[in-house]
Design brief:
Length: 335
C-alpha cells in the first residue's frame, strides 16, 4: 500500500507538499500540484484515516446502534441520519444489536475502540445500568433516538408517542368504532407504555369502554400482530384494532385476509410510525407518526451541534405526530 512518502518521491516534491495539495492547506504551484495529482492517480493512494485521527483526534465517523435493521422504521431512520451526516462529510458506522443487550455492549466497545466522534443510539432491551455506566466512562457525545434510557444524561430525539396514540384512538372514535382492541409492544419499553397510555386516554375521552381482554401485548413484529389478530378476530367482536407499530398492523392485515375479514368494511386497522412500506399494503395502511427520515436527520443535527458546542445543556426534542389516513380505516360496520 502506497504511503504519502511514496507519492512525494514519485512527484519529486516533499511529503509536506503532498499533504498541502491533498488538504488544501497552503498554496502550491500549478506544476507541483499536477505532478502530485498524477502520482496519486497512478499509485491509487488514499490518505490514512487512522493517521489523520491520531493527528486531529477526529475520525469524522458516527456510530449508529439500532435494535432491528430489518424493521423498516430503523432502516428509514438510519437513512435520515446518513443523509444529514453526508452533508457535513461524516460517515456512519452502523451496528444492528438484534435487541440484545450483550450484543449492544460488544458493538459499543467496538465503536469506542475505533474512536468514533459521536453515537446515535436506539437502545436494545435490557437493564440500562451497564449501558449508562459504560457511556458515562467513555464521555462520547451521544444522542438517544426514540427509546429513552433511564439514568443517562444525553440528548433525546423522539416522537410524541402519547399524542400520536391519542390521535389514532380519536380517529377510530370519529369513525363510529366502539369495540376497539389494542395490540401494544413490549411493556418494558417506555415507548410502548406511552402509546398504550395515549390509547387509553383517547378512548376514555370518547367514552369508549376498554376491555382488558382486548388489550394484548406483542413484540413490535409482524408475526406478533398476525398471531394476536388471529386470537382476536376468531370471535368477530372487535371492529377496529390499534397496533403498537406498523409492522404489527401489517401482521393484522394478513390475519384478517386469512380469516376472510374485510378491511376496512368489517375491521379498521391503524398502525404507528408511518413507514413507507405501509402505503404499498393492500389496503394501504392508515398510521400516525412523524416522517421517519426527518427524525433521523434531526438526531444527527443535534449530535453535530453537540460536537460544535459541548457545553450545551442536555435537551429533549419532541417531534409532533400526525395522522396518515389511507385505506385501512373506515366507518364502523352497522349492527
Amino acid at each position: 500500500m502506497s504511503t504519502i512518502k511514496d507519492v512525494a518521491a514519485r512527484a519529486g516534491v516533499s511529503f509536506t507538499t503532498v499533504s498541502h495539495v491533498l488538504n488544501g492547506t497552503r498554496r502550491v504551484s500549478d506544476a507541483a500540484r499536477a505532478r502530485v495529482e498524477q502520482a496519486v492517480a497512478e499509485m491509487g493512494y488514499a490518505p490514512s484515516a487512522v493517521a489523520r485521527a491520531l493527528k486531529t483526534s477526529e475520525t469524522f465517523v458516527f456510530g449508529v446502534l439500532v435494535p432491528n435493521i430489518t424493521n423498516p422504521f430503523f432502516a428509514e431512520l438510519t437513512r435520515g441520519i446518513e443523509e444529514r451526516c453526508r452533508q457535513t462529510d461524516y460517515s456512519v458506522f452502523l451496528c444492528n444489536t438484534d435487541d440484545e443487550s450483550e450484543l449492544q455492549t460488544h458493538y459499543l466497545q467496538t465503536l469506542l475502540e475505533r474512536r468514533v466522534d459521536g453515537l446515535l443510539l436506539a437502545a436494545a432491551a435490557g437493564e440500562p445500568e451497564p449501558l449508562v455506566r459504560r457511556l458515562g466512562f467513555a464521555r462520547v457525545p451521544t444522542v438517544v433516538v426514540e427509546r429513552r434510557i433511564p439514568g443517562l444524561e444525553a440528548d433525546l430525539v423522539r416522537v410524541d408517542h402519547d399524542a400520536g396514540a391519542r390521535l389514532a384512538a380519536s380517529h377510530l372514535a370519529a369513525l363510529g368504532h366502539r369495540r376497539i382492541a389494542c395490540l401494544s409492544g413490549p411493556s418494558r419499553f417506555q415507548v410502548s407504555r406511552e402509546r398504550t397510555a395515549g390509547w387509553v386516554a383517547g378512548l376514555q375521552e370518547a367514552g369508549i369502554e376498554i376491555r382488558a381482554d382486548w388489550m394484548l401485548e406483542g413484540d413490535f413484529s409482524a408475526a406478533a400482530g398476525h398471531a394476536l389478530a388471529h386470537e382476536l378476530l376468531r370471535q368477530r367482536e372487535v371492529t377496529a384494532i390499534l397496533a403498537g407499530n406498523d409492522m404489527m398492523a401489517i401482521g393484522v392485515l394478513r390475519a384478517a385476509a386469512e380469516l376472510g375479514v374485510s378491511v376496512p368494511g368489517e375491521l379498521s386497522v391503524i398502525g404507528f410510525d408511518g413507514i413507507d412500506m405501509g402505503s404499498y399494503m393492500f389496503p394501504a395502511l392508515t398510521s400516525v407518526g412523524h416522517p421517519i427520515r426527518e427524525l433521523g436527520e434531526m438526531a444527527a443535527s443535534v449530535l453535530l451541534e453537540r460536537l460544535g458546542k459541548r457545553v450545551l445543556p442536555v435537551r429533549e426534542v419532541v417531534m409532533a405526530p400526525h395522522l396518515i389516513e389511507r385505506a385501512s380505516t373506515g366507518p364502523a360496520p352497522k349492527g
